[in-house]
Amino acid sequence: MERKEWPLWEIFVRSKNGLDHKHCGSVHATDARMALQVARDVYTRRQEGVSIWAVKASDIVASDPDAKPELFDPAEDKIYRHPTFYKLPDEVDHM
Amino acid sequence: MGAQMTMQTTPEHLEYVLRLGDAALIHGQRLSEWCGHAPVLEEDMAMANMALDLIGQARLLLTHAGKLEGQGRDEDALAFLRHEGQYRNPTLCEMPNTDFAHTIVKAFLLGSFNLLLWERLGGSGDAELAAIAAKSLKEARYHAEHTGDWVIRLGDGTEESHRRAQAALDVLWPYTNELFAPNATDDAVSAAGIGPAWAELAAEWEAAVLPVLKAATLTVPARTPFQSYGKFGRHSEYMGHLLAHMQHLPRSFPGATW
């Protein structure tokens, strides 16, 4: 028999207003409504969230792990890009 | 709480709250049987969550019933130490899970009913019952939505899922007669402003349920004179086994805690 898996959905939960949605895992679901429902059942049982995003895993474009050397390594020796080298005037409270 | 309870407790009031409590308890017990056995992890969690919602409602309702009764029985005494004939849940609640389609159709029929019931009970003259209704209404909304979606998915799904959903509806539909059967308890409670006579909800319930069954391409069986009597304490052959399973631990180890 042909085996048909339900599509995979990546789940993002906002833990409280003002914070970003954070990736927390994935669920299998036949459609978007069901994805939200089961995400609620699987990931917000202990009051972890006030909002859920579900994104079809197949709609996410991801960088290639093998491309890590050319994508990320060149930043390694450019520590001057961090703002820690600037001296802040005392009047500036929050940065 | 005692001081708030200005109305005189009548036997009908107690009976009505027991029906609500037992319906939640037995429906929740049945759903909990899926824990670890549902077709997929996601639905296993959904079933267990619904079961826990219902058992939470049962705890509040049976605690309340115990207070109304005034004999010192708490939620555990009422949930675990009564005999079959003393339970007041509609027979539909105790019907076996059979397969996923049966469970979903049953939970949809009951969930849609509970939704209407809790909406009305929000305005109950019994302040405790009104508070329980406010909490339970949110849970019932989700149960009705989640199971309603599944009814459509199964009914309007594959040949096999349609066949199973239709078989479930054919078996379970006649048991919904009982929900709306007029009785003296409901009349008294309705007159006292404690809650609706369940029969009053029939038209609204059909208006909520029929479009979903239609969208699911399921054929609604014709109404028959069949009556079940669970809420009057006369249960089906399935109830004894369910109770034996549910009561085994508290009866073997009275007062057990962990």
Automatic annotation (TrEMBL), chain A:
<dbReference type="InterPro" id="IPR009359">
    <property type="entry name" value="PaaB"/>
</dbReference>
<dbReference type="GO" id="GO:0097266">
    <property type="term" value="F:phenylacetyl-CoA 1,2-epoxidase activity"/>
</dbReference>
<keyword id="KW-0560">Oxidoreductase</keyword>
<dbReference type="InterPro" id="IPR038693">
    <property type="entry name" value="PaaB_sf"/>
</dbReference>
<protein>
    <submittedName>
        <fullName>1,2-phenylacetyl-CoA epoxidase subunit B</fullName>
        <ecNumber>1.14.13.149</ecNumber>
    </submittedName>
</protein>
<dbReference type="Pfam" id="PF06243">
    <property type="entry name" value="PaaB"/>
</dbReference>
